[in-house]
């Protein structure tokens, strides 16, 4: 069995790489960046055109660098011994929340994609953290996504002692007595 998401689990710690499969097409982005620069310099009569093309090229290159060297190397660590959820990047390790503040894991759906969200309570406010990148609906049958749904999320819910209880709300005006 392959190790999707570089997932590891023990009794005291769960860790995985949430963005391991995202790829930045370096060749395509470099080609687009060079094309924009050439286009900007071909209109050298307009100094604004050169400036705009330079800004666009630098942003494309920075985005490519960020995805390939920083975002893809992000790791989430849930540590029971320290009661902490950490996010590690090449720049270091940062504590995000206390594990005891986690309340639920749910999905947030868009028109063509969804993502898993961790809800936690900070003071009296409920906050959220994205646990995965956006997953396209057409990719739900991929083994990577199935591994996430069948292995990582259930183990994480069990690890955090999250109960999947449904809450029912009744409105006294619309309910009749028996």
Give a description of the structure.
The chain is of the alpha+beta class. It has 3 helices and 9 strands; from the N terminus they run ββααβββββββα. β6 and β7 form a beta hairpin. α1 runs antiparallel to α2. The longest helix is centred in the N-terminal third of the chain and has 23 residues. It is elongated and about 65 Å long. The N and C termini lie far apart (55 Å).
User: What's the average pLDDT?
Assistant: 82
- Report the end-to-end length measured between terminal Cα atoms: 55 Å
Biggest sheet record: 5 strands, antiparallel
Helix content: 25-40%
Radius of gyration: 22 Å
Q: What's the tally of helices?
A: 3
Shape: elongated
What share of residues are in beta strands? 25-35%
- For this structure, the quaternary state is single chain
Order of helices and strands: EEHHEEEEEEEH
Features:
elongated; disordered C terminus; 9 strands; 178 residues; alpha+beta; four-stranded antiparallel beta sheet; five-stranded antiparallel beta sheet; single chain
Compact overview of the structure:
The protein is of the alpha+beta class and 178 residues long. Helices cover 32% and strands 28% of the residues.
Question: In terms of topology, how is this protein built?
Answer:
Blueprint: E1 8-9, E2 13-16, H1 26-42, H2 47-69, E3 75-79, E4 84-89, E5 92-98, E6 102-109, E7 113-122, E8 125-130, E9 135-136, H3 143-159
Antiparallel strand pairs: 1-2, 2-3, 3-4, 4-5, 6-7, 7-8, 7-9
Helix pairs in contact: 1-2
